[in-house]
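Researcher: Next sequence.
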Amino acid sequence: MSRRKPNGYGSITRMKGNRSRPWVIRVTVYDEDGFGRQVPIAYAETEEKANILLAQYNNNPWNIDREKVTLAALYRRWEESKLPRLGKANQYSLRAAYKHCYKYYGMKYRAIRAYHMQEAIDNCGLGVSTQINIKNLWAHLDQFAYELDIIDKMYSPLTTTQTPPETTREPFTPEQIQALWKIADREWVDTVLIFLYSGFRRTELLTMKIDQVDLDEKLFRAGIKTANGKNRIVPIHSKIFEFVQTRVEHSQSGYLFECEGRKLSLSGYYKLWNQVMEQIGAAKTPHEARHPFETELDNAKGNRKCIDLLMGHKSKDIGNRVYNHKTIEQLRETVELLK
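Model: Next structure:
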């Protein structure tokens, strides 16, 4: 009596009639709508050989008929093996980009050409950043398929996106920052000032846990997105230390920014941020709070290497990048240049 195969493992059945290879091995792939369906991947002379082929497929699905690997099948394997190695923000962007490739889910990856990829980019109906994410996803999948010998040529380098528009972002003015200090005792104003005096990205602060804040050493140990941005040390500026301390000591969710004892979502925080902006008559975003942090430190003649470390940027000068090491006290001295 044969043992029942686990879900998703595949199936083996015998076809009717007089055939040289009557045993068919089927596995699940996904069609253009993202729904799973069983398709044949190989045929065998005996049931024993069919079981061996199915076991080989589950050990390494790419050993059998690479020409039948669909976009959906390739993506799912890439999502399991490659995607977790990327930063959280990048993972989110690439997963979202995959949804715009739905027309080709069931298409054999070997048959996908540059014009298919370009169509997904051009017709996503969204802005340049989404187009860039889709292009990046095709590049990742191409590279993965090439590594597995599924394709002989990568077409993703032939795709293009719209030219990003010149930024219209402007930093907070000294008058706007002064206006914030005048109402610093009002709800949520402290969070805006923490953005301004720490230089963190919006996601970095909204996902920051209180165990990433060292009140004794007066340090943040956080950061995401790039190798240089991850787990970086940013001294807490003396002007915002009390704000940070209060939030850490009263946190119920374990996060630095919370509302009613729960972690704040990005959309939820934007509503609170905009309420503060209305009070000072400004139309700014959390990202624009990074601009004055870097600009003012540069204007104050702050050490370039220290500024790069605080911002989570890679130093352009190789000498600074490789040989120039800075202490926490040097970083603290640089942060305190913000007046």
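Model: Residues 11-64 form one domain. The longest strand covers residues 36-44.
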